[in-house]
Each structure stands twice: as structure tokens, then as C-alpha cells.
Amino acid sequence: MKILVTANMVPFMHGGASYHIAGVVRELQRAGHEVELLRLPFRFSPEKDIARAMEHAQSLDFIRPNGVTIDQVISLQFPGYGISHPDHRVWVMHQHRAVYELYDAAQATAELKQLRAQVIAFDNAALARANLVFANSRRVAARLRDFNRIEATPLYHPPADAESFRCEQALPYVFFPSRLETLKRQSLLIEAARHMHSPLKILLAGDGGQREVLARLIEQHDVGSRVALIGHVTETEKRAFYARALAVVFPAFDEDYGYITLEAMLSSKPVITCTDSGGPLEFVRDGETGWIEPPDAKALAQRLDWLAQHPRKAADAGVRSLEAYRAANISWRGVIEQLTQPL
Fold first, then answer.
1. Which Gene3D superfamilies does this UniProt record tie to the protein (predicted)?
2. Can you list the domains of the chain with their CATH numbers?
């Protein structure tokens, strides 16, 4: 089949979404389909640019562009899922979160309030038109149900290069690779370091808009000997840090899916996450494959100190974590079969 995949393009901002998009295109091609990727430019502000992006997406008709018949369209992101096609499948990575679960009516500007109404109306109409709607996780599906009354099927996919992760003898550190941004809550780990008593180290990998803020917080709390901002790491380096970690910490707020959880499981490492972390809670079983703590610095510090004192229990939880990943049967083959299933 000729399949068009739609996604966003945000210049010089790369993360899990980039791997997801590339994976969909690659695996559709491996399944024998002709695939084109259409990336629509997107800006998170100002609000008027987001409204224009929705209007542009709605104006696009890919039934037979330039006389070429496109058999299916698979859309991954807002607002690309607003385009028109008679066989349109949507796999929602996440919606425009600023007007949904991150929306604060008390702090919202008049422009944001207006945009919220526009986006919700856009999503309700676009997703209701879609032939099939999938979600990146149960958490994303729950948001669609709660906010839009749209029922979506959760569809899990493996992280990039899943077969390359490995486990080695643990060293006394925990690892957290992610973009440095507020919702990922690296600051919570830095705060936790103030309350720790063990010599366990915290390695924070990645770059982002919060780097200077986090560096100042490390200095302010005088935890530079315990917390390291190691910056950007290559994929090879990232897998090596996973392999040697005692555990992986992922305390993000209301994550959509979270490759970090799956990458840790593939590395036979337990994951420490929080009660409000969203996607990771679909994989972490408290006390079995990791630990779920309240988003509180002292609670995280106590868990980290406990891990330092019980490395064997951490290793055992890591073994169970890999077993749980394998039992979940997460594969691209299953994803592609569901995305392209006959109507």
C-alpha cells in the first residue's frame, strides 16, 4: 500500500518523538509498504500560530494529491490528525497538553482560554472522523476518554535499538537520561540529594532549557559531589550508563509513555518512579520490578539510600523487570499489524 505518515517538525528539538516517528516509517517500509513522511512545522507559541497550524492541517486533502492515490494515512501528532482522508488512522502520541492536563484556568491568559476551546473542538471533530484511533499508552488513552470522550486502543512499541541494551555489574550510581525540562523533574532528584546519607551518585544525562536552572540548584544545595549533569550522551554511551547503573530513576510528571522505563527494563534495571508519573506506572510493579514513591524529595532520598544498602535486591528487581518486558510482547510487528489492519 501507499501510506502517508504525518507528524510534526519542531526545529532543533529532538527526543522520544523523533525515534517514534522514524520507527513507524521504518517498520512500515520493512512490512513492504511504500511510505512517505509529511512533517508539518509546529510552534508551541504564540497561541495564534497554533490556531493557524490547525487551520492548515484541516485544509489538507490527501485523497488523491497530484493524481496519486494514497491508500492510508497514519497520523501521529496534533494537529496533523486534522487532515482529510477516507482511510485515516490516528496513533496519538499526546495532545496539545497545555490545554488539557497541564491547563490551569486560574493562570491562563485570555488567549490560552480561547485556544483551549479551539483545540478541544478540533480534537473532538478530527478524532471522531478517524477510522481507527490508537494511543501511545493507557495514560494517553485515559486522557482522550476523559477530555474528549474518544475511545482509543493503547498500542505499545519498543524503544529504538531494543536489542542493543545489556546489563553489566552495577556501580554505585543511579541514572536518569532525559531532556532537561520542568516536567521531567530532575529538580526533584537534586532536592532528594540534600537528604541522602549513602554515597550513591545521581547521574543526569541530557540537555535542555532547564540546564542552567538545575546547575544553579546543585550549587545552591551544595550537592555537586553527589549529582552530576553529564550533558548530551551518544546512544552507545547511554546504553553503557544503563548497563552499569544500580537503578534508573524516572520521576517525570504525568509522562505519556516514557522510553526510559522500557530502556531500563531491557537493561535489567529496576525503575524508581512516582505516583503521578503517568506512563511508567503501566510497567513498574512496586516492590517487584521497581519502586513507586510519592513525588517527594525525602521519600525519594529514603528509597535511594535503601537501594545503596540493598544492591542485591536491586539486581533481583532488575531481572524481574526484563522478564516483565519480555512477557509484555512489545514488538513493531504487532504495532504495524494493528495500524494497517483491514477496516
1. Glycogen Phosphorylase B
2. 2-155 (3.40.50.2000), 162-328 (3.40.50.2000)
